[in-house]
From TrEMBL:
<protein>
    <submittedName>
        <fullName>HD-GYP domain-containing protein</fullName>
    </submittedName>
</protein>
<feature type="domain" description="HD-GYP">
    <location>
        <begin position="238"/>
        <end position="433"/>
    </location>
</feature>
<feature type="transmembrane region" description="Helical">
    <location>
        <begin position="33"/>
        <end position="51"/>
    </location>
</feature>
<keyword id="KW-0812">Transmembrane</keyword>
<dbReference type="Pfam" id="PF13487">
    <property type="entry name" value="HD_5"/>
</dbReference>
<dbReference type="InterPro" id="IPR052020">
    <property type="entry name" value="Cyclic_di-GMP/3'3'-cGAMP_PDE"/>
</dbReference>
<feature type="transmembrane region" description="Helical">
    <location>
        <begin position="187"/>
        <end position="209"/>
    </location>
</feature>
<dbReference type="InterPro" id="IPR003607">
    <property type="entry name" value="HD/PDEase_dom"/>
</dbReference>
<feature type="region of interest" description="Disordered">
    <location>
        <begin position="427"/>
        <end position="467"/>
    </location>
</feature>
<feature type="transmembrane region" description="Helical">
    <location>
        <begin position="215"/>
        <end position="233"/>
    </location>
</feature>
<dbReference type="InterPro" id="IPR006674">
    <property type="entry name" value="HD_domain"/>
</dbReference>
<dbReference type="InterPro" id="IPR006675">
    <property type="entry name" value="HDIG_dom"/>
</dbReference>
<keyword id="KW-0472">Membrane</keyword>
<feature type="domain" description="HD">
    <location>
        <begin position="260"/>
        <end position="382"/>
    </location>
</feature>
<keyword id="KW-1133">Transmembrane helix</keyword>
<dbReference type="InterPro" id="IPR037522">
    <property type="entry name" value="HD_GYP_dom"/>
</dbReference>
<feature type="transmembrane region" description="Helical">
    <location>
        <begin position="148"/>
        <end position="175"/>
    </location>
</feature>
């Protein structure tokens, strides 16, 4: 959002004006300023401490650790919701304002981003408080009227998430130019679970705040929330380390063999599309993406002179190159988070009819991940621009996959990929490979599926054996 479109700026300004009108106290009403100041200071302290803790988790692009939902929700959220449960809507809307305006913003334009986040949190807190008060939730909190207090608090949480989803969707459409049908996916449901947990903590804070023990006891609720936030941050720190490991391996492969630069990332994307179509859960789909990205990591063990050789390979040289799946499997054996992905690295050149390598597995003996990556690998090999030829059209590449289904590829994976392409299309960044050293044109890696060219060597797949 570095270059913000004019309509997005107008949207942010309108959102900010709406936030100002919501936070303005009604004429003739007295705001509980002492409680507002205490809640606001507590919310700002929580937010600034969380930002300080996550400062070491900044990625190279300047963004922070993943948030739990739009607006950068964190362990200051229970404080905002507790204020929504206890204070009038205009007063509750002021609580997140100091923390949001003082929070550090990494990306430009900083002022616009800070204004947007402050306005978003103000409106979400105001909406939650308005719904809670309209349902008589404040009285239920003061008198500890359970379970009705849970009903009012639940409605407030839903209102908070709904406003958050609407505002996030608008900024995605106007600033990022994301289609509406894509922007709305998951915007409401994704933050609902964490905000619901924060809502329970906020409700406990509100009840304790009004109890004989007072605000000091309410602060104790933040201790388990801090522990859970710390565990959440640790999880994302570990995931960031995983991504850094994979990025380093892929960059090493690209440096060694620029001939297929970008190929790994595209195979990972295509593998993820197939995984989603097959109905895999998020964890397996992510593991399959890793498998697609790292399927060629074994090329690090192949002599560079063979990867960059002009002209046909000798049988001995071809056998050496065909060892790269085993090299790759050995390289990632000790990386625990890859788990099932390792089988795809080892077996992505196996073929359904048993003529593949390295072990000549047949049919269902080939791991599912390997059968997915084989389709994604072949598709990208056909649709990528190379120095010696233009990319094949997507339709032609898909027709070739369908023709070889049952002998070379698993028909189920090919059909899943065809359905995914029909819905999403294929829009990777089109990159031409860098010319080889000394300006000599590189000869094409043979494309010889078994059903296409009689006499083709056993085990040669689309785009191989120089995968």
């Amino acid at each position: 959002m570095r270059s913000v479109p004019p309509w997005a700026r107008v949207y942010v300004v309108c959102t900010a004006l709406g936030a100002v009108s919501c936070a303005a106290p009604s004429p003739g009403t007295r705001a509980p300023w002492a409680a507002v100041a205490l809640f606001a200071a507590l919310c700002a302290a929580c937010e600034l401490l969380a930002a300080r803790r996550s400062a070491g988790e900044r990625r190279p692009d300047g963004t922070g650790a993943p948030a739990e939902g739009g607006a950068g929700l964190g362990w200051h959220t229970p404080v905002m919701l507790a204020a929504a449960f206890l204070l009038p809507p205009p007063a509750a809307a002021l609580v997140p304002l100091p923390g949001a305006l003082l929070a550090r913003v990494e990306q430009r334009p900083r002022g616009l981003r800070r204004t947007w986040r402050a306005a978003q949190l103000v409106l979400c807190t105001w909406a939650a408080s308005r719904v809670h008060w309209a349902l008589g939730g404040r009285d239920a909190v003061v008198t500890s009227d359970f379970p009705y207090a849970l009903v009012a608090a639940g409605a407030a949480v839903v209102a908070f998430c709904l406003v958050l989803a609407v505002l996030d969707g608008g900024i995605l459409v106007l600033a990022e130019r994301v289609p509406v049908r894509v922007a709305r996916r998951g915007l409401f449901l994704r933050p609902l679970a964490p905000v619901a947990v924060h809502g329970l903590a906020g409700l406990m804070m509100a009840v304790l705040w009004r109890s004989p023990y007072g605000p000091a006891a309410a602060l104790l609720v933040l201790l388990p929330m801090y522990v859970s936030w710390w565990a959440f941050a640790q999880y994302h720190r570990e995931r960031a380390a995983h991504r850094a490991t994979i990025r380093a391996l892929v960059q090493a492969v690209d440096i060694k063999d620029g001939y297929t630069r970008g190929h790994s990332e595209r195979v990972g994307r295509a593998s993820m599309m197939i995984a989603r179509e097959l109905g895999m859960d998020d964890e397996r789909a992510e593991a399959l993406r890793f498998a697609g990205i790292l399927h060629d990591v074994g090329k690090l063990g192949v002599p560079t002179r063979l990867l960059r050789k002009d002209g046909p390979l000798t049988p001995e040289e071809r056998r050496i190159i065909e060892l790269h799946p085993e090299y790759g499997h050995e390289m990632v054996r000790g990386i625990g988070f890859l788990e099932e992905a390792r089988s795809a690295i080892l077996h992505h050149h196996e073929r359904l009819d048993g003529s593949g390598y390295p072990y000549g597995l047949k049919g269902c003996r080939i791991p599912e991940f390997a059968r997915v990556v084989a389709v994604a690998d072949a598709f990208d090999a056909m649709t990528s621009t190379r120095s010696y030829r233009r990319a094949r059209p997507v339709a032609a590449a898909l027709a070739e996959l369908e023709r070889c289904a049952g002998t070379q590829f698993d028909p189920r994976m090919v059909q899943a990929f065809a359905r995914a392409l029909g819905r999403q299309g294929w829009h990777p960044a089109v990159t031409a490979d860098e010319p080889p050293p000394h300006g000599r044109p590189r000869l094409p890696a043979p494309y010889t599926p078994v059903a296409t060219e009689p006499g083709a060597r056993r085990g040669t797949a689309p785009g191989g054996p120089r995968p």
